[in-house]
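Forgive a beginner's question, but might I ask you for the amino acids of a protein and the tokens describing how it folds?
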Amino acid sequence: MVDLAEEETRGLSDTALRRAINTLRQRHQNGESLDALLPETFAIVREASVRMLGERPYTEQLIGGAALHLGAAVEMKTGEGKTLTGVLPACLHALTGQGVHVMTANDYLAARDAEWMGPVYGLSLALQAKELYVKDRDYAVVDGAIRVIDTTTQRPLSDRTLHDGLDQALDAKEGLEVRPERQQLATIDVHAYLKLYSRLAGMTGVIEGEADAYPGLYGLECVIVPPHHPVRRVDHDPSMFANDGTMLRAVGTTVQTQCTAGRPVLVGTASDEMAGRISQTLRAAGVEHDVLDARSHEREAEIIARAGRPGAVTVLTRMAGRGVDIRLAEPEGAGLYVLGVGPMSSRRMELHLRGRAGRGGDPGESAFYFSLEDALMKNTKTAQRLTEGGMDGPLGPNFAITRLILAKLNAVSAFQTQSLTEKLRFSAVREEQRAGVYARREEVLRDGITQDRMDGIIHSVIQTLVLAARTGPQDVDRLAQALGTLCPATVSRDTIAVGLSGSPTSKVRADLVEAVVRDVRAADTARVAELGPNTAARLRRRVMLSVLDRLWRGQLRDLDDAQDGQTLRTVAGGDALGGYQRTASRLAATMWEEIDEQFVGYWFNVEV
């Protein structure tokens, strides 16, 4: 149907194409569904793409666009045109007038497509900064500043900070000027943020190994779109070496052989540290090359632009999206040779790296080298058996090694999915509280603090204070002092003593609550009369928002601390999630009580 609609749009002028889009928008406003408008919209986008970009979306891209429109997680191989595919449903949904957000976790692709003083807060932070946070793995020093390295893309992030003073501890560790602590004002995790959208879809180059997770995590069914061009890449089974030294020598030999033959070579690994060792090996062999790691991300476009030239050698760390733009300078040659060194973080990342070769029907070749000293293999029975056998040269490629490595990578992927699921369960607790706080905030912004709401807050605060008080003489004094500090209550000490003589459920205690509430409500009426209704309404709103925001910031810190504590409990085999839920519930109850109590206190005592 898109092809039929395309025939009608082909003869339209540019102005007529724009009018056609406006007509479609009006038809949708008049009740036609997006499903019905899809063929014409896709045809217009297809024709506009031909005129503006010289690219005509092919059938597989239309299939991918339709699947995205229906809310699926779509797999399209590297080089199959995901960027243009995404334009199709984006234009379709723009007809609603509600806006469309196209997001990526990769700054490079996005650009391409359009607390405490560390030295003072001592031992704990210093040890974490020194032992747990490794330079060029967890963070990098860029232009004299600490930049956290994204665990997925391996890029340093300019807008990401740590908490609990770790930023400052890392500043001190690296001899930099120690920054003042930033305070977290609000937070929402990516999963919860995405769930706020009424319609969600996604694209990736590799779904294998994670297809079962998407329905549960995001409510998305997976659709695999076949490639437009046949895959011509040759994928070799992995080779195993006795140790890193032997493996690196083989890397140097392989790279030298391939680049001497005029092929561009891409060497991928999971860490900056291994990338450095590979670079050292290549320098020793006299092989010119570029290194694309966390420290060179600003030169990414420049490095990638020459990575497809004959004989070019590029070493990169495992970075989502890196290398997707490598285009062969000689498409008719043997193609890009991809060599993976050491284990990737998952089977999916291995396939991502292999997919850099043979994109869009180009020729290509991929191989992987592993060492028994890799974290994936170290201390395994297989490694011990092979080491004891005196293995020195490469073992494999063979079926047994391939099966072993695949099993290990699949196990890692399963663990990552389980960890993500567990993390999201923790996040759901925080998200529930965030939703409650933001709902209260929206209510205050919209309605202010109505008199009924004010009366309810006063009653709740007084009831909490009075019922929580004990019955001793000192408790009488404490309650009298608390009431006097909170608000201009005039209830006598004798009245308080009588009220506290009974249990929290007694009539005398209930009578005391009502007496104090009447007193405070009278003071509230006088406060409104003193300020005037308009000024009083503005002050109530301002005070509540200030208290709400400040205590929510504190709650976020408390929830972080609670989750950190429960992480240790997980290691010990305890019920981490249950413990966190109970702690979070208790913290929330305390927060809401403090919000109302502090609001009442500031309302009566702040000077205007």
Residues 115-121 have pLDDT under 50 and may be disordered.
